Amino acid sequence: MRFSTEVNWTGFDFVVAGGLLFGAGLTFVLVARQANSAAYRLGVAVGVAAGLLLVWANLAVGLVGSEDNPANVLYLGVLAVALIGAFVARFRPLGMSNAMFGAALTYVAVTVVALFVWTPAGAAAEPQVGLVNVLGANAVFAGIWAAAGWLFRRADAANAHSGQQLA
C-alpha cells in the first residue's frame, strides 16, 4: 500500500490473511507429523498450498470473472471434496491421493460450470479478462491438486513396497 494505490487493505484484510496463513501452517504440521515418507509430507505441503492459494485468490480477485461473481462460491466445493476425502480416508496415502484427484476433477467441473453454465453478468463480468487466461490459470490450480494426488500415490506405493520387503 506504500507503493501503489491499487492495493488498499484494511485491518480486517490483514486479520483474514493472518488467519489463512496460520490455518495453513497448522494444518500442515498436524497432518505431516504422522507421515513416514518425504512424498507424503510433500503431498501434504502441496495440498495445503493448493487450498491456501484457492481461498486467497478467490478472496482477492475471484477465479472466474471478478470477486463479485457469485459463481466463485462454487470453488468451496473443491475444498469440501479435499477435506471430507482426507477425513474419510483417515489421512492414509491412497485415500489422500483419491481425495486430491477428486479435488482436481471437482476444480475442473466447477470451472466449466462457472464459465459456461453460470456465466457472470453485470458488475461480476470482466470482459477484459480473456477466456484463455481464465482457463489457463484454472488449469494450473487443478494441476496443483493433481500433483498432490500424485505425491500421495507415490507415498502409498513406497509404503506398499516397504511392506513387501518386510514380508
UniProtKB/TrEMBL annotation:
It comes from the Bacteria. Keywords: Membrane, Transmembrane, Transmembrane helix. The chain crosses the membrane at residues 12-32, 39-61, 73-91, 98-118, 130-152. This is DUF4203 domain-containing protein. It comes from Hymenobacter ruricola.
